[in-house]
Design goal:
This protein has 7 helices and 7 strands; from the N terminus they run αααβαβαβββαββα. The radius of gyration is 17 Å and the shape is elongated. The longest helix has 14 residues, at about 85-95. It is of the alpha+beta class. Helix 1 (about 1-10) runs parallel beside helix 5 (about 85-95). The protein has a 4-stranded mixed sheet with strand order 2-7-6-5, with helices on both faces.
């Protein structure tokens, strides 16, 4: 399943747009870099402006204290999934898809309130768990999805997370994303 997704992304060739220093002023980009944790400052591949739709989602997410616009999608696999293969496919997908490595920063600028920071080398979280004895598979998967939504990462860290849950007879994938990472608000629609 994940390998199929990776191959579709690779075929589309969604590369990262070039640095947007002509769109975001260098002093704003410098301020953004300095506001991020040190481990991310060195890893920034590019800084891009956010789209108006992304600005709206981010502002709404802030007003809700991080409770809105982040989602967890759960999928039941028809086959038993091997953790190593899925993890490798997940890492390849994240490496190839800049939006999955993107974090957001406040700019303190009136024209560009937020910026999208694409991290060049970032390892997305991959969790693996097994449904405990006496617990229903679906209930456990729902709890993993709720945990993703209830415990969002800092906006300085990409929201992308994946969990593999081993059930009694099936494997499940739980994908955690923020709404601004997909759909029409995504900046990749402007550059591809």
């Amino acid at each position: 399943l994940m390998e199929s997704l990776v191959s579709k992304v690779v075929k589309k060739n969604s590369s990262c747009p070039s640095d947007a220093s002509n769109i975001i002023l260098p002093e704003i980009a410098s301020r953004i870099r300095q506001s991020l944790p040190a481990e991310f400052q060195r890893g920034i591949q590019t800084i891009l402006p956010t789209s108006p739709g992304m600005d709206w989602y981010l502002a709404s997410w802030q007003r809700s204290d991080g409770e809105r616009w982040q989602y967890a999608f759960a999928f039941k696999s028809a086959v038993t999934l091997a953790a190593t293969a899925l993890q490798d496919a997940w890492y390849a997908l994240v490496k190839h898809s800049p939006i999955l490595r993107s974090a957001f920063a406040l700019t303190n600028d009136t024209e560009h309130r937020f910026a999208l920071c694409v991290l060049g080398d970032w390892t997305a979280p991959f969790l693996e768990s097994t449904v405990p004895e006496g617990v229903d598979d679906i209930s456990f998967v729902h709890e993993q999805a709720r945990a993703f939504v209830r415990n969002p990462p800092s906006p300085h860290v990409p929201f992308s997370r994946l969990a593999l849950v081993h059930g009694r007879t099936s494997s499940y994938i739980v994908l955690g994303l923020h709404h601004m990472q997909y759909g029409q608000s995504s900046p990749w629609h402007r550059f591809t």
